[in-house]
Fold this protein.
Amino acid sequence: MALPKFGSGDLVERVLKGEHAAIAAALSQMEDTRPTALDTNRELLRELEERTPRTHTVVGLTGTPGVGKSSLAAAMIRYWVEKQEGVGMLAIDPSSRRSGGALLGDRTRLRFEPNERVFVRSLAAKDQLGGLAPATRASVVVLRAAFEWTLVETVGVGQSEIDVETVADTVVLVLQPGSGDTLQFMKAGVLEIPDISVVHKWDLGSLAERTRADLEAILGQLPVRSTDWRMAVIGTSAQTGQGIDELGEKLREHRAYLDATNELDHRRQKSRTAWTLELFTQRFGSFGLERLGGRDATIRRIEELDQSPLDGFHQLRSEAGFDR
Amino acid sequence: MPDRPWIIRTYSGHSSAEASNQLYRANLEKGQTGLSIAFDLPTQTGYEADHPLAAGEVGKVGVPISSIEDMQTLLHGIPLDRMNTSMTINATAAWLLSLYIAVAERSGIKRSQLQGTTQNDIIKEYLSRGTYIFPPDESMRLTSNMIEFAVDEVPKWNPINICSYHLQEVGATPSQEVGFAIANAMAVLDGINVDATTMPSVVGRISFFCNAGIRFIEETCKMRAFTRIWDRVTQERYGVDDPKLRRFRYGVQVNSLGLTEAQPENNIQRIALEALGVILSKDARARAIQLPAWNEAMGLPRPWDQQWSLRIQQVLAYETDLLEYEDIFEGSHVIEKKVREIEAGAQAEIDRILEQGGAVRAVESGYMKRALVESNAARIAAIESGERTVVGVNRFDQTEASPLTQDAEGGILALDPTAEKTQIDRLIAHRNRRNRTDVDAALQGLLDAVKSGDNVMPASIRCAHAGVTTGEWSDALRSVFGDYRAPTGIEAPLELRSAGENLDAIRARVTEVSDRLGRRLKALIGKPGLDGHSSGAEQIALFARDAGWEVVYEGIRLTPDQIVSSAEQEGVHLIGLSILSGSHLTLVPQIAKRVNVPVVVGGIIPESDITLLRNQGVAAVYTPRDYDVLRIIREMVEVVAQANGVA
């Protein structure tokens, strides 16, 4: 789709209303890497962030390839749509290092009618290693502005799935029965403890039960991520539909917990800081950080500024003396 | 004493039951000795003719059969007690066999007299043809039901034809073709629920449907390898002692993949040579053969084109001396060596699949599909590099104007454009005519059988008699089994091995155009309509990825609405559509008119339609003549560059 005229409040308005063409245009705009796009994006991002209803939630779906993240996502989307709630989804697939190309195949499992309040965008991870794509953070802002729920499905590369917790309000780890490696990573502290663990393909029976038991056992041994939230373990099956309602309710429950404890603000703040830092280091590296007094000082400065990330980036750039 | 000739058939059917019936009767008068029914895609995938997904597909690649009335018209005047009928039907095989039985019963012919074959091989549908409906386990249950029913009730019927044919069509090597097909047959037999004493007669009803390519010596060896492995497997795994029941019985349609649109007259010698591959060796000779027409890569053949292929078979069977000899390869060390090589390769494939839990699991995991997609990419690369010669295509491509394609239609059959509407009218009239109470009761009986695990055949035959429609029968099963989407096989991490300068240049150009547009080139590749032959679309998706595109691959069975909506959500720069069923004039404009990015189309598209599509705003049209995939990818880049003013 060719991009409509930009820079007007009109686009923001249309995104907030959930208009597909506008969301698509805003997402493409956010992916634009040309320097000329930066100012438009800054403005768009700031406005969208400001006007997004606070009740909207971002869920990160992570887990190794083949565990059935897509089929689980499809079932969750169906669940929300039936409850009259809109869903935006980002499906991230790896890029080829040699050609830069990517196959984005998730749509084959995500079939929805064009008039439903569902919007799915595939993103290629490009050379990003943390399981997200470069435009993920900005794309999340666009979708979150439009829909009650935003789902981010990561590449699923196991250990390096760390970035998802810096974009999502709630992190859901998907495992399949017998995912011994993932459990080991968690135990070793390589993998962050998710808010909710899902043992997918629950229809596999006793093996699934055992994985669940292993998870519960690990839980007993590890410090939890937030003091008052105990990681939930849920068994689901896209085939039988089992556990989908339970997962939906658990997500709502986690969201209520985030609201009640100020954890939501805390997480979103952390997410903006991570993003601002990422923008700055990608461009100016450790040399840039040093000019701001090192990494920790930069993080403190970002928190102090408390700005929309592209604005924060601009400010840091000028403070580091890298102005155009 | 000379061997008896094989059953001589022609795969045909189009437009309507009435038109197809006339065609069949004419072919039988010309000396064809069996029938081979081609069904249209709505019938194959279980949709009513007036379902949105059926738009443009009714009567295109075969005959539309909506109910017993159509089946009666189709078979009118054909002696079913003496006919040998092959039906290319899979997901809805139980239904079409029920209709066939019901029609026979209405004319006083017993089930036990019926002879023929339902293709009914669902595994290859997931791998190649794409006309599956239900998930693998549920589909396999239908297959088992039919086999168990046929063994008792229709003992001369082949309830399943395990297909290696379609595996070769999507690029399988001979060893893969043999290995995958045998593993598939094992999955079918392992799912059969009969006592050990009945098992040999079940094994004796399993037949195969194979392909024969232009390398006809290798094909001869492949067929010998098949017969040997099958003999061994049936004895060792299924305890069949009677050698007659262990015999590898198979039918053949020779290779369509290798037929060319360029210099199409060359296809005649290809077809004749390919037929040799499955008749030369008496011990591994086909039981039934159907030959494609010379113009298959261009569109639908006319009766005269089919007659030409029929006459090839008759010359081979009745003029030559090949039926007079015992097996002429007996004692040949050269042949024996090649047979053993294929056999060993096939056995390795079988072992690999069994290790994964059998063919059904290897479908679900995507293993088999990935292996085929990879083989096909290698085949295409070999043709592009010239390593593999295709006369008239990548060598000897200069040609005089062909008088065969000079007529107004370009040498193919022009279909009646009103066929779809006529069929929908017939269907509506039928719905109004039948007794609703009978229909509801029959459908309820079907649902009960499906849910309780009973054999679905008796309830389906009752549905057939009651006037239930194809869509109703399928929907009843869908409501219990659900709809299924198979792995696409393109998640494979493989990259083009023989990248070469050509590819590097395209990659550079993709990056250049991407930089000017601000983000990497992104394309949506999908197949609108019901045609499930996805291998062309898969190869375009793979090669485009390797050239640096971001490719959203949307798979098969999409409505124009879904494609338009996906393209919008994904923010793609280009849409690539693949259609092989002939429904392009209906489907493509519905997409091209509603998006503001360029659309390119590939498929079996007659010359005269190319202009029509271009006039509807399609940026480029590719046909089987365009074998050079990289050229297509390069042109796609330029189409985007031009559309965005950065050429």
Observations:
- The mean pLDDT of chain B is 93.
- The interface with chain A takes residues 485, 488, 490-491, 495, 507, 510-511, 518-520, 541-542, 544-555, 561-562, 564-571, 595-597, 644 of chain B (CB under 8 Å).
